[in-house]
Amino acid sequence: MRRDYVNVGVIWFTATFLLELIWPAIKFFGIPGSEEGLLIDEAFNILMVLGIPVFTFVLSVLGYSFVRFRVHEDDTQTDGPPVRSSTTVYVVWLVVTGLLALAVLIHPGITGVFELRSNPTADLIVEVQAEKWNWTFSYPQYGIVVEKADQLILPVDTRVKFEVSSTDILHSFWIPAFRMKMDAVPGQTNALYTTPNVISAFDDDSNFRVQCAELCGTGHARMRAEVVVIEIEEFESWVAEMQPASP
Q: Which of 61, 92, 180, 190 has the greatest number of C-beta atoms within 10 Å?
């Protein structure tokens, strides 16, 4: 039995080492396009680092048990010997996993939420109105309204407040590059704050898009718009072009 423990330990260590070495090279979500995206990616990385050893331990024990204690063709015994429980194993498993759960609850859980909500101010307000199956983006500070928009234009390094609502049914305003999502609820306005920090567009990175993330009918998959993040000077020029002419 001691040899089995050693074998499982070696398999567990090897699998954990390889996965911890390989997974950072895998780009699950692409490059984050906002300051909040960096924070959320950091939280994901912490969860991966802590979760991989638990994942590989379970697989190592199960895989080794399937191979080591499998029934052979020449076995005449219909049932194996009884397996006695181990209080020590139970206690160690509960304590270790409980401490890990408590750790991630505190950080990045609670600390991350406080950091995301630490700055409820904005330099730019964008009103987002969802309807089947289009987006309307309004810039009330400039008197600009873009109906059935195919693009959302934003300035880089600018704190943006999205005021999200819906005119018909439940939708969800999601920009994958920003790692941010907010429900669009009829009769209710929800606020979402973010700071784009990468100049990019949908043509460069398909994650720079507004996508409805709530199943809303036959046009759900087509309910999207490109996100274009540009320099502040370019944004000011765009605003000047889009503003209604003075009477």
A: 180
